[in-house]
């Protein structure tokens, strides 16, 4: 189930240092969110091939997610999703290829979190490259296996919606 082994390498000491920095920064952000209760906006991409979805595990959270991240000020959510997909997996996409499958605002970790999730079906499995810093794992899962994982909560609905 793991992504192409040729694209994986063992984390270096420098990678481990980045992982620790990500954990520390994320914990600081969680504290800030609990105090300030900001509104945030994120965009993710569920990448599908042959009935399986690519899920990533970031170094700083205990759950699986889809490639994605925050929408920058003035940035369209589709553009953010494409940028994050490329940054986190090395996969390039175009805005018109993405189908919006989830769009909701929820309270999450002390913030008002607007999450948009897009689906992208690809005919062939792309080569996935993770940095071993922010993203430490990328693997393909059937829906059934994905539902058995600790998932970012909005992702469950997006995965269930995929036909």
Biggest sheet record: 7 strands, mixed
Task: Please provide the count of β strands.
Answer: 7
Taking all Cα atoms into account, the compactness measure Rg is 15 Å
- Please tally the helical runs, counting DSSP H or I stretches of 4 or more residues: 4
Helix content percent band = 25-40%
Question: How much of the residues is beta strand, in percent?
Answer: 25-35%
Short description:
With about 160 residues, the protein is an alpha+beta fold. The protein has helices at about 15-35, 75-90, 145, 155-160, and strands at about 40-50, 50-60, 65, 70, 100-110, 110-120, 135-140.
Describe this structure as you would to a colleague:
The protein is α+β, with helices and mostly antiparallel strands and 163 residues long. It has a single domain (5-161), classed as Nucleoside Triphosphate Pyrophosphohydrolase. It is built from four helices and seven strands, in the order H-E-E-E-E-H-E-E-E-H-H. The protein has helices at residues 13-36, 77-89, 143-147, 153-161; strands spanning 39-49, 52-58, 64-65, 68-70, 99-108, 111-121, 135-142. The radius of gyration is 15 Å and the shape is globular. The two termini are 21 Å apart.
């Amino acid at each position: 189930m793991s992504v192409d082994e040729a694209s994986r390498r063992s984390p270096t000491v420098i990678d481990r240092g980045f992982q620790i920095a990500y954990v520390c920064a994320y914990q600081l952000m969680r504290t800030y969110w609990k105090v300030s209760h900001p509104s945030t906006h994120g965009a993710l991409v569920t990448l599908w091939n042959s009935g399986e979805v690519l899920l990533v595990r970031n170094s700083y959270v205990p759950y699986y997610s889809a490639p994605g991240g925050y929408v920058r000020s003035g940035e369209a959510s589709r553009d953010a999703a494409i940028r994050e997909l490329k940054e986190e997996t090395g996969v390039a996409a175009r805005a018109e290829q993405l189908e919006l499958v989830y769009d909701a605002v929820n309270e999450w970790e002390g913030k008002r979190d607007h999450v948009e999730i897009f689906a992208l079906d690809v005919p062939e499995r792309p080569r996935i490259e993770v940095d071993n810093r922010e993203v430490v794992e990328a693997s393909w899962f059937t829906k059934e296996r994905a539902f058995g994982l600790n998932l970012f909560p909005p992702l469950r609905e997006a995965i269930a919606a995929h036909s």
